[in-house]
Design goal:
six-stranded mixed sheet; Ribonucleotide Reductase Protein R1, domain 1; 10 strands; 33% helix
């Protein structure tokens, strides 16, 4: 299982959002750090096939990112995922399961499993519009897992989660990374400090660090702040 990004570039008029990035991903957890505007979301949207690269390629086990076969292997939680406020949590997951092509029995089974996994079983029959921000985020995580994806893309997945929920999320992701490629984009260093097998850092569209936690002989947040200007928002 291998996801290959080769010289990937995305340009908007006079701004290069992603600049000739090449990466190879195998099963494990990849933490993607960078300030707002560094190019993280643009990179992830290209990996998901939502944005077309200006140049470069993305393939997964020989499949092009634009194919249905590739999308069937993909789970995605965008930074602002859309939900249907008048759906119950359970109905929302069942609906998303249909969109992902799951059969009725599989959809029902996966929905119940995931409601349990993200601790929403007790509110499964309540409308999504009554959920807190953290509950909606957990529902978003659940929908990304419906099709047992081999590639899981998570853009700021802990936004709105309280510290206890964040720990639960990290434990969940640690398990998923054993059999899947998990790419977790965040500006919260602690989200990936303990669980990432490999840490990637972006700055102004370029990949400026690609290594393991052991490659950094100091506090990860201090290293990030010193080397890459920390969490300042970059030009969009």
């Amino acid at each position: 299982m291998e996801l290959i990004i080769d010289r990937l570039t995305r340009q908007y008029k006079n701004k290069i959002a992603v600049d000739r990035i090449s990466l190879n991903f195998q099963p494990g957890i990849y933490g993607l750090l960078g300030a707002n505007g560094a190019g993280k979301t643009t990179l992830m949207r290209m990996i998901c096939g939502i944005l077309t690269p200006t140049s470069g390629t993305i393939t997964f086990d020989g499949m092009d990112v634009a194919t249905e076969e590739y999308r069937a292997e993909l789970g995605y939680l965008p930074q602002d995922f859309g939900y249907y406020p008048d759906f119950t949590g359970r109905d929302f997951l069942l609906y998303m399961a249909v969109l992902k092509g799951l059969g009725k029995k599989t959809a029902q089974r996966k929905t119940e499993e995931l409601l349990e996994l993200v601790s929403l079983k007790d509110v499964a029959n309540k409308k999504v519009k009554t959920y807190s921000g953290g509950m909606k985020q957990r529902l978003g995580i659940a929908q990304a897992l419906l099709n047992d994806p081999k590639i899981l893309i998570l853009d700021e997945p802990t936004a709105g989660l309280d510290p206890k929920e964040r720990v639960r999320f990290r434990n969940l992701i640690a398990d998923l990374g054993k059999d899947s490629i998990v790419i977790l984009s965040t500006h919260i260093v602690s989200d990936i400090d303990r669980i990432a097998d490999r840490i990637l850092m972006m700055n102004y569209g370029q990949l400026v660090f690609n290594g393991t936690r052991e490659d950094i002989n100091e506090d990860l947040e201090e290293f990030y702040l010193r080397e890459f200007g920390g969490l300042e928002e970059q030009d969009k």
